[in-house]
Design a protein that fits this description.
Blueprint lengths: L5 E4 L9 H16 L3 E4 L11 H14 L22 H13 L3 E4 L3 H13 L15 H9 L5 E4 L6 E6 L3 E6 L6 E4 L7 H11 L4 E5 L5 H11 L6 E5 L2 E2 L15 H6 L4 H8 L14 H6 L11 E2 L2 H14 L2 H8 L8 H8 L6 H12 L7 H10 L1 H11 L5 H12 L4 H12 L7 H7 L2 H25 L1
Parallel strand pairs: 1-2, 8-9, 10-11
Antiparallel strand pairs: 3-4, 4-7, 5-6
Helix pairs in contact: 6-7, 9-11, 12-13, 13-19, 15-18, 15-20, 16-17, 16-20, 18-20
The protein binds one RNA strand through helix 4, strand 4, strand 7, helix 6 and strand 11.
RNA sequence: GCUCCCAUCGUCUAGAGGCCCAGGACACAGCCCUCUCAAGGCUGGUACGAGGGUUCGAAUCCCUCUGGGAGCGCCA
């Protein structure tokens, strides 16, 4: 095994973990696991102002929640670390020195304002707004003069001219760029911090990353990063660019599409397995339909099955996978949905009774109320069902349940007493006991509704039916 | 403004010149099963963005248009 696969996820800890980002993280993870390789987590926190420890913790918690485990990362350091860029200053400084010494980089004294004006000017001339190379040929006196003006320089990489850069994109196939389309780019900001293009590429090489799957917004970065890595004499990883995730309307996925971040879907109560089953198929097709356990997700993952068109994230698809996930979830996963809403100790029995009717936690809350709560007076179709059945049914039911509640005994007795069966029997009973016409099997429900509530509800139904009957008789 | 990429049912997708008047899944509708809902089973409608080529033959190849996405930063 000459080249063990190493992939990575390199988020910047600013803001929430976006679904589009985790999808690329997932692809990298799947690819590494598929090939028995390593998956590493690197925190890109060079931009100090935008990062904080709490965010890093949250980010790791969310990845872990999804089941994406990493072999090395900020909490699992190894020889290739440190895995947070804020701790890699010395390493970057050494690289800048080497580039400077070889004249492959130069200080740039242009101010943000000057650059902005140059960009606008280029744009109005119909040219791409790339760096013009103003400081590229500055000699020592020129630099000294600018230093005296108090300008803090950034450091730019000197992009060679007239070079052809080609690479084989893992998902887009052969790519070709001319270095002349690339402006000299900043590798160290004026404040001394490392710029993305630079530290991202450098760290990938230093950490032995062999395959980089990332969003297609990085395609144009690839030739720059290759040039840079090559200039430093390091190894270049293979790159694959996956299309971005968009909302149902085709616009980039954002808040207004509902759930756009891992935090959102998690807060809504979606299970990680559901999220992963969906994400793994957005822009990637599996040869098998239906639910896949992590091992199968890994086993069937295939780079050549990655698509090149933007994929739409659709909440109704997530709902479907969620139902599948709930169906398979161990009781312990679902019990928290019940906690605090059902009598202590009843969680397991409650979940067992209603799980087929659950998709998200609010469903559990609703059923908990219908089962254990005080129900108001019946209305609408529920009321009609009760009234239509008549007082006798409920009176008989109360008689049979006076001592204890036994489902089989109750049904048998009611069939005998009323001559009713099937829908004519169950529907009014269901209506009286849950105030719903749909729901889990009655046997299941009766097993969890407290006996006292059963009698209260049956009595309420009986009274409602008799009151209505008298009322109608009086009106006649 | 310039450059690059993409384009099959509402959505996820299969399809790499004849196997496709386009297959599967989700969603939707109907039926069956069933005390109801869900699940399950069956059935149905809905798509190759448009126009030109190439070819005996095109969803598949080429061109134009249209639509979408991305990039051109001291943002990552």
């Amino acid at each position: 095994m000459p080249h063990p696969v190493v992939t990575r996820f390199a988020p910047s800890p600013s803001g929430l973990l976006h679904l589009g980002n985790v999808r690329t993280a997932l692809f990298n993870w799947l690819y590494a696991r598929r090939h028995g390789g390593r998956f590493v987590l690197r925190i890109e926190d060079t931009d100090r102002a935008r990062s904080d420890e709490a965010q890093i913790g949250a980010l790791m918690a969310e990845l872990g929640w999804l089941g994406l485990d990493w072999d090395a990362g900020p909490d699992r350091e190894d020889a290739a670390g440190p895995y947070r860029q804020s701790a890699r200053g010395a390493f970057y400084a050494a690289a800048w020195q080497r580039l400077l010494a070889a004249d492959l980089a130069y200080p740039c004294y242009c101010t943000p304002l000057e650059l902005e004006m140059a960009r606008k000017a280029a744009l109005s001339r119909g040219e791409p707004p790339r760096y013009a190379g103003t400081c590229a040929r500055l000699d020592e006196p020129g630099r000294a003069a600018r230093e005296r003006e108090g300008r803090a320089p950034s450091l730019r990489f000197r992009v060679p001219s007239g070079q052809d850069i080609r690479y084989q994109d893992l998902v887009r196939g052969p790519q070709r760029f001319s270095s002349d389309e690339l402006g000299d780019f900043v590798i160290r900001r004026a404040d001394g911090s490392a710029a993305f293009l630079f530290c991202n590429a450098l760290d990938d090489s230093a950490m032995g990353v062999t395959h980089v799957l990332r969003g297609e917004d990085h395609v144009a970065n690839t030739p720059r990063q290759q040039l840079l890595v090559l200039a430093l004499g390091e190894r270049v990883p293979a790159y694959g660019h996956v299309p971005l995730l968009v909302g149902t309307d085709g616009a980039p996925l954002s808040k207004r599409h509902g759930s756009a971040s891992v935090a959102d879907v998690r807060a809504a109560g979606f299970l990680p397995e559901a999220v992963v089953n969906l994400l793994a198929r957005l822009g990637h097709s599996y040869p098998v339909e239906g639910w896949l356990e992590p091992a199968a997700l890994i086993g069937h993952f295939d780079l050549s099955a990655l698509g090149r068109a933007p994929a739409h994230f659709d909440l109704t698809q997530l709902q479907y996978w969620q139902k599948e996930a709930v169906r398979r979830a161990p009781a312990a996963t679902l019990e928290p949905w019940a906690r605090g809403r059902v009598p202590p100790g009843e969680e397991a029995r409650f979940i067992a009774a209603v799980r087929a009717n659950l998709t998200l936690p609010p469903d559990a809350a609703e059923w908990a109320h219908l089962i254990y709560g005080e129900l108001p007076c019946a209305e609408g179709a529920v009321r009609t069902a009760i009234v239509e059945a008549g007082e006798g049914l409920f009176a008989a039911a109360l008689a049979v349940t006076a001592e204890r509640v036994d489902y089989a005994r109750l049904i048998t007795a009611l069939k005998a007493a009323t001559g009713r069966s099937g829908r004519a029997l169950f529907q009014p009973l269901r209506a009286a006991l849950t105030q719903r016409l749909d729901g889990p099997e009655l046997a299941q429900l009766i097993a969890v509704i407290p006996e006292r509530q059963i009698r209260v509800r049956l009595a309420a139904a009986r009274d409602l039916a008799s009151r209505t009957a008298r009322h109608e008789a009086a009106n006649r």
